[in-house]
Amino acid sequence: MRKTTALRAAAAATAALLTATACGSxxxxxxQDTAAGGAxxxxxxxxxxxxxxxxxxxYPLSGPASAYGTISKGVAAYFSHVNDKGGIDxxxxxxxxxxxxxxxxxxxxxxxxxxxxxxxxxxFQTLGTPSTAAVWDYLNKQKVPQPxxxxxxxxxxxxxxxPWTIGWQPNYVAEARVYAKYLKDARPKAEVAVLxxxxxxxxxxxxxxxxxxxxxxxxxVAEESYEVTDPSVSAQMASLARSKxxxxxxxxxxxFGSQALAADAxxxxxxxxxxxxxxxxxxxxxxxxxxxxxxxxxxxxxFKDPADPQWAADPEMKAYKDALHEYAPDADPDNQFxxxxxxxxxxxxxxxxxxxxxxxEGLRDAVRSLKDxxxxxxxxxxxxxxxxxxxxxxxxxxxxxxxxxxxxxxxKPVDTRKxxxxxxx
Length: 425
Known about the structure:
Pfam families: Peripla_BP_6. It comes from Streptomyces populi. Belongs to the leucine-binding protein family. This is Branched-chain amino acid ABC transporter substrate-binding protein. Keywords: Signal. By secondary structure, the protein is an alpha/beta fold. The protein has helices at about 5-35, 70-85, 105-115, 130-140, 170-185, 200-215, 235-240, 255-265, 285, 315-325, 335-355, 360-365, 415-420, and strands at about 50-60, 90-100, 120-125, 145-150, 165, 190-195, 220-225, 245-250, 275, 300, 395-405, 405-415. It contains 13 helices and twelve strands. Helix content is about 40%, strand content about 15%. It is globular and about 65 Å long. Helix 5 (about 170-185) runs parallel beside helix 6 (about 200-215). The protein has two domains: about 5-170 and about 315-395, Rossmann fold, CATH 3.40.50.2300; about 175-300 and about 400-420, Response regulator (Rossmann fold), CATH 3.40.50.
């Protein structure tokens, strides 16, 4: 995927600055910390001992994407739950959370603090495409694992210049393929209007969708973008409505997802099928609009919805809700972002268990050598797999439609690897 010029320039500038000031001291510390013996001799053990493991996370606890901040509560609840049961391979997890306000320069500052001051073993979860792009050069030069970033940009699984970074959730190209397949099957002559965030996130999903519908009867007839700093998307929605498209593809983050859904509901002269991307599908996004106004909206998912009664007796769901009640009593257990945090933390647990060496290199290799790994919070039929030439852990999703007061799954799991081939490398 081609990164935007602004992000590429920001990443290069910050990497140059941080490398100049940090490389010598950090690598010197790592040299002192390489205590592993045998086949692991010489590998980095910064942030991990026989009894502890220190992880850092960077989230927008404030700012325009602060709705995502609660993911950190789901992650922290999982690690607290595991710690009470003896930890991960006997190691208690310390999870240090930093706030970047969804601002790439701030993300760089926080990544530096986590690596150089906190001495974390890994920077687990940087949230958002802009923030992740701003820090991955630095973390890779420092040889610090950046596993399971909270963004679906296809960049995290392409190329071989950033071996210490890997995504987790289905990438935006894979998600776009699911919507394309649905429309080609259900509405083969659909005319689609697209609202998208003007950054790598929005362009990645939009580009994947266009490629997936190419040569079919499904056509994109209108596009409008917005900036994350915009106060609203009302003007963009008014413009898209004039296209009279019968499908609206909504590629937004939570704040703007709510605005787009509200604008759609108010416009009684335009009634398209509204497809909202996964990252803006939480009930926390839909509820302010009014559930009566979002009936029939379509999205896709890959993990269990905590508000869906079909999972009420599910052992993993029960463990999640009990732990959230105990360790994060102010967090809503039905909020999908909290369940996301639990699911991704559980996935990291699996990768840590699979390390051949209790080292940074061991984690780097483990997340790229997953084989049909099952995670309790993932939907049946969805497993994690990576390997040579495939750095996308999850590429299977299921469609869901909002009905009543919750999402309802429909159709079968769509394995985009099998349907479309591997995501372009």
